[in-house]
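Fold these two proteins, one after the other.
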Amino acid sequence: MRLSLDFVTIGELGTKDFLRVNKNDSISGVIKEMSKEGVDRALVYSDDEPEGIVTKKDIVSRVGSSRRRRIPPSSLHVSSFMSFPLLILPEDILISKAARVMLDAGISSIPAHRDREVISLFSKWDIAKVLIKEASPIEDIMSRKVVWIMEDDSLIKARKLMVEEGLSTLPVMNADGKVIGIVTVTELMDALIEILDVLAESGARNALKRIRVGEIMRPLIPSLRPDDTIGMAAALMIEKSIRGVLVMNEEGDLEGLVTLTDLTRFVVK
């Protein structure tokens, strides 16, 4: 059964109480605010005007670069990490159209404005919230070609995979080929920031090579079966604050991964 989303707008569905930061704020302070508020993004302002968006994925993409390894994150500003120029849409745009815009632009959130004032921040998380009663099976939308990582791989490899493949969630395998957890942009960002803030460039690079994915992953993440519903996947993402849910068969083998982006594609279709 497909829920009717024909008349739902981004102004209605978007998050009203979103995190606002200044482009001159320290990135370390903004990360603490994200953790405190339980969010993965913030709208960036210059004076009173919205100028960009900064997400955990933006931070992971930029904080580990060789140029920025020379500077502790506590000395870096939000302006060094934010994505801009900012795409803003009117509040009465339907979520199906906004979802298409996000997919085409390769972004995960869009501010909604009323009379040039931003009133909400619409993101893929809001799409998950509206799909929690969707009864279609997740096998219809899940990604079957899953990129994964070994538990003894380094943080550098995890970051490289996420950045180059455009991912936010990686299943973690052990030597027996069994899934033992996941690593997301949250765990990776926290580890990168902690290391780079206390070590000089050479020491940080050695630490990034030395620390294993198994040390920072989320273990024992609940999974779903291919015939479970899209609504169950959406609810699990929201409950656990994860952008991807593992899909396993009865033998415990990895069949696929369903992500917030898969939910977004479903709304577009």
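Now the second one:
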Amino acid sequence: MEIQAAVVHEKAGNIALEKVELDEPKENEVLVKIVGTGICHTDLGVQHQHIQTPLPIVLGHEGAGIVEKVGPGVTEFEPGDHVVISFSYCGKCRSCLEGHPAACENLGKLNFGGCLLDGTTRLKKDGKEVATLFGQSSLATYAVSHVNNLVKVDKDVDLTILGPLACGIQTGAGTVLNKLKPAFGSSIAVFGCGGVGLSAVMAANLTPCLNIIAVDINDDRLALAKELGATHTINSKKTDVVQEIYSITGGGVDYAVESTGVPEVVLQSIHSLKSRGVVAVVGVGGKTSIHIHDDLIPPNRTVVGVVEGDAIPKLFIPKLIDFYKKGKFPFDKMIKTYSFKNINDAINDMNAGKTIKPVITFSE
């Protein structure tokens, strides 16, 4: 079938809205009519090839839509189901079998290798193959994805805004709830108040943390962090972050989430920890040098990397939606919608800090 898709043909090339051919779903695959797709910095990383993938490629990895058709062997989905499309994983390696699909041994290939689970793509243009991102390429009017990617969601929630739960929101919230698991009366600092960081703030507000400290350089984002549950905010352009955190907590935080990937901020997050503190690094950026002896060993600090919030999407995303429906996880406050034709406006606004989480809609 012919679809409209956001295609990148070359490194740092423009995102072009083009017609491409989408093949029928194969065994254990599903055709989804896309309703809304979040834009994440990972998409831009692929566009500029900071994250290397085959080219050309159709972008999009935070999709949400309605099942249009199922391929052979599909039993858990049927036409009309509402779904969120998350990351791809093999389901057979040790990490997957132990309940950690975000640590899948094939994660890189399946999400950035340009193919679906069977090693091929469903996308073509002028008879030539076009690569798939995250096994979905959901910045398009339709997508074909393996059942592993798909999460069935309730139909009483606005499907348009659910796409970002698939990656950015899942990453921030899952890092707090699945990996750090803050203890009663503990303190946490979140570095960076983009979509991932603010999701971490909202998740921390669901835990028994006493202090939730949000750090950013944008006062508007810090104000939103306060609205979403932060007990304290710090503008790192105006204040010595580590000193202020020590002042608030009386010696450092128990936990930190570093979502910026900026090397100096990574170091700040480590230095903000108290003895035996843990920082989860989820931001991707430049190289960072850590002095193992000075920064980690004497204070017994721990630095962990976390991918996709160490989540099982089929279990975790419905829980986030339940908390959203109860008013306890208001992620919609981060979202602004844009029509597909205005995708470049959405990206420009995100890069300028005007929009935290843009979502592309396909209703036209």
